[in-house]
Amino acid sequence: MDQDDPGEAMAELQERHLGGLGILEVAAGTGLFAYTFWAGFLMPGFRRVPLKLQVPYVPSSRQQVENVLSLLRDRSGKMVDLGSGDGRIVLAAYRQGLYPVVGYELNPWLLRLSRFYAWRAGCARKVSYQKEDLWKVNLADCKNITVFLAPSVLPLLETKLLAELPNEARVVSGRFPLPNWEPIATVGEGLDKVWAYDIGLIRQNMEMRETTFLQGTPV
Ligand SMILES: C[S@@+](CC[C@H](N)C(=O)[O-])C[C@H]1O[C@@H](n2cnc3c(N)ncnc32)[C@H](O)[C@@H]1O
Q1: Residue ranges per domain, the chain?
Q2: How far does residue 108's CA lie from ligand 1's centre (Å)?
Q3: Which residue ranges run through the membrane (predicted)?
Q4: Reported CATH class of domain 62-207
C-alpha cells in the first residue's frame, strides 16, 4: 500500500477488523469526547464542585415557572434562585414585583445568556446574576428561595437552608420535593409540579417532633 495515498489508507482501514485494541481506542475516544462535552459545554465552572453535587442544566418549563411564581405571589424581600440556569425564574420574579432578585449560577454560558435576556427585557440593572457556587453563598438575608435541582442533592440542601434561612423565608422547589419537609402548598401536576415550604413552620414541626419523641422516651 502507498502510505502517502489517503484513499488507499482509508480503504485499508475499512477492510481491517476492529481488534481489542481498536475497541479500546474507540471507547477511549468516545469517553474523551463525552468528557470534553460535559466539562466544556454542560458543566464548565464546576471543577471545584464535588461530582456528587453537580447538577446539570435543565430549564424549567413555562408552566413550571408560572407555578413557582404563583407560590411567591404577594411576597416581599430578597429572592434568590439557586442554580439560575438561563435566568428565567429570576426575570419572571422581578416582573412579578420581587426585589432584589439574584440568580446564582456557575456555568458562564448560562450567566451570559441570563444577562443578555435581562438586557433584552430592559431589566439589566434590575436583576443580578452572580457566578457563585450555591453551596457556598450565605442565605441569611433571603426571604424567597427557588430551587430546581436533582433529588440526590436535596437532603443536603435541606440542611443548608435550615441552618441559614430566617423564619420568614419561603422555599419553592420545582419538579422534585424536598424529601423530609412538609409543604404548605403545592401547585401543578407531573413535571410542572412545585412545592412551597415555610421555614418557620418547618422548624416548629421539627421541634414538636423532637419534644414528642423525648416525652415518649423512658427515663
Ligand atoms: C435544573 S437547572 C435549573 C435552572 C433554572 N433554575 C430553571 O429553573 O430553569 C439547575 C441549574 O443549577 C446550576 N447549578 C448546579 N449546581 C450549582 C452550583 N453548585 N452552584 C451554582 N449553580 C449550580 C446548573 O448549572 C443549572 O443551570
Answers
A1: 6-42, 62-207
A2: 11
A3: 20-43
A4: alpha beta
